[in-house]
Amino acid sequence: MNKLNFHNNRVMQDRRSVCIFLPDDESLNIIINVKILCHQLLVQVCDLLRLKDCHLFGLSVIQNNEHVYMELSQKLYKYCPKEWKKEASKGIDQFGPPMIIHFRVQYYVENGRLISDRAARYYYYWHLRKQVLHSQCVLREEAYFLLAAFALQADLGNFKRNKHCGKYFEPEAYFPSWVVSKRGKDYILKHIPNMHKDQFALTASEAYLKYIKEAVRLDDVAVHYYRLYKVQN
């Protein structure tokens, strides 16, 4: 993964390293003050991404295999591992293992046109891309093929016969695993090119909008799932 680096000028003793995973599989390495508020970190991330409209996004950590979104008014160390909080910096560019944080969509909208900021729309699209890979709407199988066509147009542009032939994309990157298992890679690679071709002249921004519109129609995409735990009295 490509990494963007950012360093502030805080006292070294209070500095820690965090790694922010982004929806498009990129990451940010940021050096922060250990007492930073979650809101301040979110603002830093949005500034680095040149994202003007960040109210749909949040920061999360994984606890018990679930994404737990941070309360922005809290200090970051409320969510950090104990070792990370205690780990003192050892000098310039000498920090312990970074705290892993995820930048992802926290609040959903059905109409992508409500997201006017291009960068915000881009990351919103990529978040839905990841959600679709885990979708299980077996009665809406055709929707996954249409979504793949929109995504290929967004990612690769117009279909070109001399360039987009054979295995020019990985089915697993565009379809849930159950669709790939059911139909097979050969079937997908045979039929998707014509659907990709049908999206000719759509700009990446227009393809994002079509993808968002179709993806949120799937019942299990624009939602967050959490386990229910039995409370003992």
UniProtKB/TrEMBL annotation:
SMART domains: B41. GO terms for biological process: positive regulation of hippo signaling. It comes from the Eukaryota. Residues 16-233 form the FERM domain. InterPro entries: Band_41_domain (IPR019749), FERM/acyl-CoA-bd_prot_sf (IPR014352), FERM_2 (IPR035963), FERM_central (IPR019748), FERM_domain (IPR000299), FERM_N (IPR018979), FRMD6-like (IPR047145), Ubiquitin-like_domsf (IPR029071). GO terms for cellular component: cytoplasmic side of apical plasma membrane. It holds the Pfam family FERM_N. This is FERM domain-containing protein. It comes from Marmota monax (Woodchuck).
